[in-house]
Amino acid sequence: MTESVQPRLEALMVHAGQAMRSGRPREAVRLIEAAEAGLDAGAEAALRAVLRRNLGIALAAAGEREAGIARLREALAADPEPELAHLNLARLLLAKGERLEAARQGFRALTRAQAKGRWRDAGSTPPGLRPLVLAVMDLVDAERRQLLDALLRPFEEAHGRPALARIRAWLEAYLGHAPPAPADPARKARFLFLPGLAEDRIHPRSRFPWIEALEARTGAIRAEALAACSEEARESFLHFGEGEDPGDYLGGAEPRWEARFFYRDGRRFDSVHTACPTTSAAIEALPLVRIADHAPEICFSLLGPDTHIKPHHGVTNTRLVVHLPLVVPRDCALHVAGLTHAWREGEVLVFDDTWRHEAWNRSDRVRIILLMDTWHPDLEPPEREALAALVEGIGRFNRA
């Protein structure tokens, strides 16, 4: 945007704001549209998104609700972060009677604002926004409760409420904004902690009757891993968002944690299954955690020389992490809350990653394991099915 355009744009937006505060939304629409028309081709996308958002709010105030909704959606398509656009879209959708979609947009507004320290209480919320923010909070609570209760109820009807008692207890705590947490400070579930499950750091092999069959295929699985994990076929195990520092997760001179995924966030990579038929058949025979857009998570995990995976915690204790070691150089180990386990090729390990844990490869060779997850053995089949439905529902609500 050229310097000559900037003062005119600012003047138009000041006048548009005054028109809105004075109850003249039609005039505000005209002024914002004039500001949009004056933008040159090089204008920043974020600026265009702000103008679209303001135009949507003004159009809705002028009685053109559908046009306002359309402009707000355009603003969010260009820049999905601004919480005010989500908040006002929630308000307009609620006025249309679209309560669930309004709640989803409201949830996005609240989570984005609260991540910035805003809208947490009266002091962090502008007075003019407080009634709307409180109304959206109530809407989110009501619609999320209705949605998740409707997902759990059929399981309770089919299997009886006692069979789903601890799932119901967790859901009520989650909806009440006070989900249970582990008592031990060395333990943390980043999303879902279900009390009443065995708390072993490393779980006894006897609880998993499929381990021996998996171990029996170690040689063939290793051969497929070595063939499938060429340098060009690997990808980073971790994905970093804006502002995240890889050094917070990995240590070492040139740390590398790479993978070849069979499944990632529940998505199946058919080409890898085709390239590794023995491994594919072995994992498909296991009691995998299957949750749309979440699980299973299965890969050949490659930890590079002189790489340290720093201490961290997992997502939930309802599923456990499984390692089948395939290539283990010297001085490679996993440390789980005070227990150090040195991997042995062909010997399966099952552990609970909600315990603080870390891993390292201090050798000069790559360590390779087949990494996957499985349900906690204390969960009965109806509980697993209900949890999968609830997690899918929460994910859909949060992502909408």
Give structural notes.
With 400 residues, the chain is of the alpha+beta class. The protein has a domain at 205-375: Sandwich (Jelly Rolls), CATH 2.60.120.330. The chain contains 13 helices and twelve strands. The protein has helices at residues 5-21, 25-37, 45-61, 65-78, 83-96, 99-115, 130-159, 165-175, 211-215, 218-228, 270-275, 277-284, 381-399, and strands at residues 235-236, 250-251, 257-264, 267-268, 298-303, 307-312, 319-327, 332-336, 339-341, 349-351, 357-361, 367-375. Strands 1, 3, 4, 5, 7, 10 and 12 form a seven-stranded antiparallel sheet that branches. It has a five-stranded antiparallel sheet with strand order 2-6-11-8-9, with no helix packed on it. A hairpin with a 2-residue loop joins strand 8 (332-336) and strand 9. Helix 6 (99-115) packs across helix 7 and helix 7 (130-159) packs antiparallel against helix 13. It starts with a helix and ends with a helix. 34% of the residues are buried. The mean pLDDT is 93.
Secondary-structure arrangement, i.e. CATH architecture of the domain at 205-375:
Sandwich
State the CATH class of the domain at 205-375: Mainly Beta
In sequence order, what are the helices and strands, one letter per element?
HHHHHHHHHHEEEEHHEEEEEEEEH
Number of helices: 13
Question: Per the principal axes of the C-alpha atoms, what is the gross shape?
Answer: globular
Protein structure class: alpha+beta
Task: Present the secondary structure layout.
Layout (H helix, E strand, L loop, with lengths): L4 H17 L3 H13 L7 H17 L3 H14 L4 H14 L2 H17 L14 H30 L5 H11 L35 H5 L2 H11 L6 E2 L13 E2 L5 E8 L2 E2 L1 H6 L1 H8 L13 E6 L3 E6 L6 E9 L4 E5 L2 E3 L7 E3 L5 E5 L5 E9 L5 H19 L1
